[in-house]
Design brief:
The chain is an alpha/beta fold. It has a single domain (about 5-330), classed as TIM Barrel. About 35% of the residues lie in helices and about 15% in strands. The protein is built from 11 helices and 12 strands. The chain has helices spanning about 30-45, 60-70, 100-115, 135-145, 160-165, 190-195, 235-255, 260-265, 280-290, 300-305, 320-325; strands at about 5, 10-15, 15-20, 50-55, 80-85, 85, 95, 120-125, 150-155, 175, 200-205, 275. The strands form 3 sheets. The chain has an 8-stranded parallel beta barrel, surrounded by 4 helices. A two-stranded antiparallel ribbon has the order 1-2. A two-stranded antiparallel ribbon has the order 6-7. α1 packs across α2 and α5 (about 160-165) packs parallel to α6. This is Aldo/keto reductase.
Length: about 325
């Protein structure tokens, strides 16, 4: 697998990363052994970037990664960890906390759960409206100086926050949703990142499975957060699945699966964009990896633009209450 520099100041990482969230219950129950086997398969394929959050499964995901990495050299893997989201015992979401003292507490627990001495990329999962970004980034910079963190990233923030954060300490990457059907970053956020030398780690490249070519309403399971996602709701999902079918025909005509076409579209948007593949099973991973090296010609990109106009998808990417909290969605 090829590698790229993550922003102007970040580490070299594999051109694809593995997003591990789905291995800890967000899409319903996951098979622990298969999850670990998928992490191993990703590493064997050349993936070096693993993305997690300390709140995925309330620590479960970090413990799972620790177990999977026991036999692997520490310096062979780059761990990207999000912090700040607060959970309750019923798996609910109860806010964000990115105060410096809270960050140091979260970091201490992540180091313990992951079984490592440092985290490669550490980032707040969301902007905390109660805490200036300068305070949060400044505190993480102290952890960089102390050796507990190597690089600082951000997640789902807008241009003003990016600039303020970068004035405190170099930011290696912005983790944000980006796909053929979620293109809001193209107006201002992506140009600002390129101006500032900040890379993009793109999650949701298959729109949570909607444009994977494999999801259907019958696939929903207990505990799957898509049950509350606007794009999967009646009235929206029917329109969206019709859109998927038009994409399926384009993919088939080019000898690709729909998922491979969608991933190849993201990689075609620039070498500074690293897709995070949210595979929970080896079969999903192997399908996604086959998109590496696929080069979409101008004719294909134009056909995709016609088939999927920028605002073609029905429904926002999160429920209204969550959308209102996203700094990246503020004008």
């Amino acid at each position: 697998m090829s590698s790229v520099s993550l922003g102007r100041t970040g580490p070299r990482v594999s051109s694809f990363g593995l997003g591990c969230m789905g291995m800890s219950g967000m899409y319903g129950p996951a098979d622990r052994a298969e999850s670990i086997a998928t992490i191993h398969a990703a590493l064997e394929s050349g993936i070096t970037l693993l993305d997690t959050g300390d709140f995925y499964g309330s620590g479960h995901n970090e413990l799972l990664i620790h177990e999977a990495l026991r036999a692997h050299p520490r310096d062979a893997v780059l761990l990207s960890v999000k912090f700040g989201a607060l959970r309750d015992p019923a798996n609910g979401w109860v806010g964000n906390d990115t105060r410096p003292a809270a960050m140091k507490n979260f970091l201490a627990y992540s180091l313990q759960r992951l079984g490592v001495d440092y985290i490669d990329i550490y980032r707040p999962a969301r902007l905390d409206p109660q805490v200036p970004i300068e305070d949060t980034v400044g505190a993480i910079a102290e952890m960089v100086k102390a050796g507990y963190v190597r690089y600082i990233g951000l997640s789902e923030v807008g241009v003003d926050t990016l600039r303020r954060a970068a004035a405190v300490h170099p930011i290696c990457d912005l983790q944000i949703e980006y796909s053929l059907v979620s293109r809001g970053i193209e107006d201002a956020i992506l140009p600002a990142c390129r101006e500032l030398g900040i890379g993009i780690t793109a999650y949701g490249v298959l729109s949570r499975g909607l444009i994977s070519g494999h999801w259907s309403p019958q696939a929903s399971r207990a505990g799957d957060f898509r049950a509350h996602s606007p794009r999967f709701q009646p009235g929206n999902v029917e329109r969206n699945l019709a859109l998927v079918e038009s994409l399926r025909a384009l993919a088939a005509a080019r000898g690709l699966s729909l998922a491979q076409l969608a991933i190849a579209w993201v990689t075609a948007q620039g070498a500074d964009i690293v897709p995070l593949i949210g595979a929970r099973r080896r079969a999903q991973l192997h399908e996604a990896l086959a998109a590496q090296g696929q080069r979409l010609d101008a004719e294909t990109l134009a056909a995709l633009a016609r088939a999927v106009p920028r605002d073609a998808i029905a429904g926002t990417r999160y429920a209204p209450a969550q959308m209102a909290l996203l700094d990246s969605e503020r004008a």
